[in-house]
């Protein structure tokens, strides 16, 4: 972000100097208003690193996130539906195994092009901690959401309509309607407990994602091959644990752990999949905010490796320190 701020100055300061001069002054309100708008644009340009939007590699990475997320949603939800259709003794365990292999391979494949986020919660957390610029993060999230919708719509075309309706196209939901003793009942979990589960399980995923893949020193140990499999294993484990809650609260699919993964089937199927859908967004984004605060307050022991970061909290801290040091004694 520091480089972006400098670029903003290079582009916009000459523009301001050519538009206004000290001799002219602010002759009228229109001049003052124009100057204010240009200054505001300059600030926003620097803060959000909008110059990143012109980089071809950023768009290529975002397109990679779009394509791989679409494939991931298609394959992963197809695997979940297959496990449910097969009638395994423990469909939750079977789905977790499918999730492990899908995530490990897709993260491994997407990592060279985009870093293999494939999850808006991970992207948001990396933006807050300075590992990803806001412009890149915005394009990533847009690509992930669009990819999820495309993948879910493609799966809906392939899967029989009765199967898609029965399993909600492998989507995420808090409650479901079932027949029990000849009576139609709605079973599941309330939004409050579901939000807490989403927050905690996603926080665990983000903690290990940062510790394994985003920690420069730890990444030297795990490497580019082992890290995706370890992250996939953590997500599969959290999916299994949260999915086990279905045994007590039948109808709850477990923690989504990935907002885009839940969004695609909800768009494709609609209906009850939108009930409480906000939980699968708010929970992970709260987890991303929490992990960012943790990394700022309690940084890793090898802090020197992180001094080059330009996260939002560091930017704010430097601004405050700068103002304090410049204040008269």
From TrEMBL:
InterPro entries: Aquaporin-like, MIP, MIP_CS. It is a multi-pass membrane protein. The keyword Membrane applies. Its main location: membrane. One of its GO terms (molecular function) is channel activity. Keywords: Membrane, Transmembrane, Transmembrane helix, Transport. PROSITE patterns: MIP. GO terms for cellular component: membrane. The chain crosses the membrane at residues 30-54, 66-88, 94-116, 137-159, 194-214, 226-248, 278-298. It is found in: Membrane. Belongs to the MIP/aquaporin (TC 1.A.8) family. PANTHER family: AQUAPORIN AQPAE.A-LIKE, AQUAPORIN-LIKE. This is Aquaporin. It comes from Ceratopteris richardii.
């Amino acid at each position: 972000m520091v480089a972006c701020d400098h670029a903003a100055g290079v582009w916009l300061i000459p523009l301001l100097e050519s538009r206004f001069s000290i001799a002219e002054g602010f002759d009228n309100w229109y001049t003052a208003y124009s100057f204010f708008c240009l200054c505001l644009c300059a600030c926003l340009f620097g803060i959000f690193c909008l110059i990143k939007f012109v980089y071809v590699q950023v768009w290529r990475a975002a397109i990679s996130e779009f394509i791989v997320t679409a494939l991931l949603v298609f394959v992963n939800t197809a695997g979940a539906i297959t496990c449910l259709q097969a009638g395994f003794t423990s469909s939750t365990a079977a789905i977790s195994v499918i999730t492990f292999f899908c995530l490990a391979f897709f993260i491994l494949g997407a990592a060279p092009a985009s870093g293999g986020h494939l999850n808006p919660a991970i992207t948001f957390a990396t933006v807050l901690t300075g590992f990803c610029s806001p412009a890149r993060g915005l394009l990533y999230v847009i690509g992930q959401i669009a990819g999820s919708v495309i993948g879910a719509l493609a799966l809906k075309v392939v899967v029989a309509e009765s199967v898609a309706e029965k399993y909600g196209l492998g989507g995420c939901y808090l409650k479901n309607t079932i027949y029990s003793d000849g009576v139609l009942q709605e079973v599941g979990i309330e939004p409050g407990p579901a939000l807490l589960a989403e927050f905690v399980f996603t926080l665990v995923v983000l903690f290990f994602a940062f510790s394994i893949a985003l920690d420069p020193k730890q990444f030297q140990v795990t490497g580019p091959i082992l890290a995706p499999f370890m992250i996939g294993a953590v997500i599969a484990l959290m999916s299994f644990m949260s999915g086990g809650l279905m045994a007590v609260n039948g109808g709850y699919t477990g923690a989504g752990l990935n907002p885009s993964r839940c969004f695609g089937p909800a768009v494709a199927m609609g209906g009850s999949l939108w009930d409480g859908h906000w939980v699968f967004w708010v929970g992970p984004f709260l987890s991303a905010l929490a992990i960012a605060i943790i990394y700022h307050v309690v940084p890793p022991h090898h802090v020197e490796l992180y001094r080059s970061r330009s996260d939002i909290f560091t930017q704010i801290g430097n601004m405050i320190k700068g103002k304090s040091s410049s204040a008269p004694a």
